[in-house]
Specification:
Shape: globular
Oligomer: single chain
Helix content: 10-25%
Bound molecules: calcium ion
Strand order of the largest sheet: 1-2-12-9-14-3
Radius of gyration: 18 Å
Number of domains: 1
Structural class: alpha+beta
Strand content: 25-35%
Largest sheet: 6 strands, antiparallel
Order of helices and strands: EEHEHEEHEEEEEEEEEEH
Number of helices: 4
Length: about 290
């Protein structure tokens, strides 16, 4: 279990007790850590459903999904402009907003270590960023905002879904109250915005589990204050991400929630877009 430690900075709190989130939210349990984060990540995994459902088609009533970005083999090249539906069918994750481009870093191929940890973008990044699950990582490449929208994993019809918990491992968070995750219900109401603790050249983790009936349809992640490109340091805080961990996404019906009429209008457009794209490259493994 996580421990309070001045050196390691582990924080596991009920948000009702401490003001970690910037927006108070009833029923939120915050898992926050920096430095050696393994125990807090494992505690979050356990709290949201100990079973990793992997690529198995849903619906499931319990368990979780994870994306570690590590598929592709030992000679994987950086995946520039990752398809936003790459993990839609097998993990229920779709990435937005539409003008944003996302990239998965490469493996450190023999004689070319610069391919790892976004060294293809800046040769100092393999030193700046540390991976949690080796070797690959994830980042937006023309923005500091990543949004993940939830769908029922394994659904050929891209059924809109909700979850109750979501967390991310971050690399090289330097500035306090800058890198964050904001959680949204299907009606776009914010369920709370939570900041990630800094760990220069190290790892940070933030995960929030809602247990007051809140249902998350979308998360908006802000990474640092600068798009990947320049050297990290001074006023420039570039941040990359590794593992995404979230409770099993369930359809509105499975979650016992009515599907908001306003979301249906938006969702129909999204689903139409997704149908046209027919996701087919869902090969990266957990
Ligand atoms: Ca990884
Ligand atoms: Ca740094
Ligand atoms: Ca940084």
């Amino acid at each position: 279990m996580p421990r309070l430690s001045a050196q390691r900075g582990t924080i596991l709190v009920l948000s009702l007790c401490l003001s970690v989130p910037s927006i108070a939210s009833a029923g939120s349990i915050v898992f926050s850590d920096f430095g050696t984060i393994q125990d807090t990540v494992d505690a979050f995994r356990s709290a949201i459903g100990g079973v990793n459902n992997g690529n198995a088609p849903g619906p499931f009533t319990a368990g979780r999904r994870e994306i570690n970005w590590d598929g592709g083999g030992v000679n994987a090249q950086p995946l520039v402009n990752m398809p936003k539906d790459l993990f839609l069918n097998n993990r229920g994750a779709f990435y937005e907003p539409s003008p944003t481009t996302f990239s998965i870093s490469g493996q450190a191929a023999p004689n070319d270590a610069t391919l790892a940890r976004f060294g293809n973008i800046n040769s100092t990044y393999p030193t700046t960023f540390t991976s949690f699950s080796n070797p690959r990582m994830f980042a937006p490449t023309n923005s500091i905002v990543t949004e993940q929208v939830f769908f029922q994993p394994g659904s050929s019809k891209n059924i809109p879904a909700v979850t109750t918990a979501f967390g991310v491992v971050f690399a090289d968070v330097d500035r306090a109250r800058t890198t964050s995750i904001e959680y949204f219900a299907a009606n776009n109401k914010s369920l709370g915005k939570f900041y990630v603790p800094p760990a220069n050249n190290g790892l940070s983790f933030l995960g929030v589990k809602f247990d007051g009936g809140e249902l998350i349809n979308r998360v908006s992640i802000t990474t640092g204050n600068t798009v990947l490109g320049p050297n990290d340091g001074g006023a420039v805080d570039v941040v990359a991400m590794d593992d995404f961990i979230y409770a099993e996404p369930k359809s509105f019906a499975s979650a016992g929630a009515p599907e908001p009429a306003t979301w249906l209008l938006v969702g129909s457009g999204v689903v139409g877009l997704l149908w046209r794209r027919r996701p087919s490259r869902l090969t990266l493994s957990a």
